[in-house]
Amino acid sequence: MTTAMKPHVTPRAEETRKRIYEAALELFRENGFEQTTMRDIARKADVALGGAYYYFSSKEAIVLAFYHEMQQSNHDQILELMDKSKKLKDRLRTIIEKRLELLMPNRRFCDALFRHAPDSTDPLSPFSEETHSIRERAIQHMQIAVEGSDTRMPTDLKRHLPYLLWLYQMAIILFWLYDRSSGQQRTQKLIDKSLGLVVSLIRISGLPLMRPLRKTVLELVETVTP
Amino acid sequence: MTTAMKPHVTPRAEETRKRIYEAALELFRENGFEQTTMRDIARKADVALGGAYYYFSSKEAIVLAFYHEMQQSNHDQILELMDKSKKLKDRLRTIIEKRLELLMPNRRFCDALFRHAPDSTDPLSPFSEETHSIRERAIQHMQIAVEGSDTRMPTDLKRHLPYLLWLYQMAIILFWLYDRSSGQQRTQKLIDKSLGLVVSLIRISGLPLMRPLRKTVLELVETVTP
DNA sequence: TCTTGTGTTTGAACATGTTCAAGGAACAGT
DNA sequence: ACTGTTCCTTGAACATGTTCAAACACAAGA
Question: At CB < 8 Å, which residues of chain B contact A?
Fold first, then answer.
């Protein structure tokens, strides 16, 4: 007897799952998250309504799967691109633009990711348990960007920087979601201008004059970080 | 014939509206927004299901009404309290703590306010059309806090400060919603520490040395502000 | 081939936000 | 008192996310 309870997923099932997943994403992209019904998805994927729920515990779970997949496909790409430049600004820009590039075709529905309650039980909250691994990896990217850069900075700041930069990235994504300007030019401007500012601040923070202020900020960060 | 179409609201109707409103808030407070059904509300208010929709176009509209009412009741109180001190820090603390105090009993459901799509059509988004007047008034409070304070600051910053402080306040509220610590002590710490920092930054920004940085930040703010 | 168990699929049923056509109540003008 | 208008109330009906018991498919063992 096998003590392990392997889920025994048949190839056929995997195919069905994929059919549902892709039908869903296509519909989400076309009509947005809200406008797409589970019945639409099931019909397009050629399964009964209940079928969709066999593979995805909820409508949101499909978005979560996309979120995971995106982070996965992003990872190797990021590692590669990090070799292009040692400048922190370039590295941050790469990470942020790569992320937006992946989100771009899905702009219609990835707002669903931000639409959720400040509730640890809500699977789609960017701070929830379910998105933990995604979040950790995104922070890890920032860590890599920082570690490998030639920008000098105080060690006490360095420790918190990956998390802070992740927050910075999240803020940009949030702005991008709200951005109604054509081609999201305003987001582009925001990135251009804020990147310089962020890097400047990191540089300046090393000045002896800035030490007290830096300490205060970091103390604040520590009370706020879980 | 009366050319004007006055809405002709009977007193009885106003009473029914209030009954629904209060039943809803009570249930929201007790069970949260999601857990409360419109049928629950209607039953508690002793009207038919459709009745609730005669007065409130949606479940969320009830929360919006609360939001409006809160801002209203807040206004005079704030104006009064602004006379207590001329120090910017005191004034900001007053506004923020008063706001949290009003939200506190409704913590279970005011997360609904933040749970909404970055979509100008979404009535509950803090940036939407429907919440415009609320937002404007909140920003106005910050303006009053700034104008009447004895803290000196550059005029170019002063112009944007109310909006920036409003964002600051929103960030604190968001943190508070996420804050699972008992009695939301972490939020209290955040306020204590960040207030000092904010005021310090405003002061420092006036130093000649800071001029370029300040200009950069304000330029950024202007591209980001609609 | 028949049986059995496991993995997959189905569609009816349910809960809940929302809409709406119909009915009732109050009141003004006749 | 009758009539019409306007405001208010009702509950059935609908759309859609979700659940679930039953049916089905298929492979392994008899």
Answer: 34, 111-112, 114-120, 127, 174-175, 177-178, 180, 186, 189-190, 193-194, 196-197, 200, 204, 213, 216-217, 219-220, 223-224
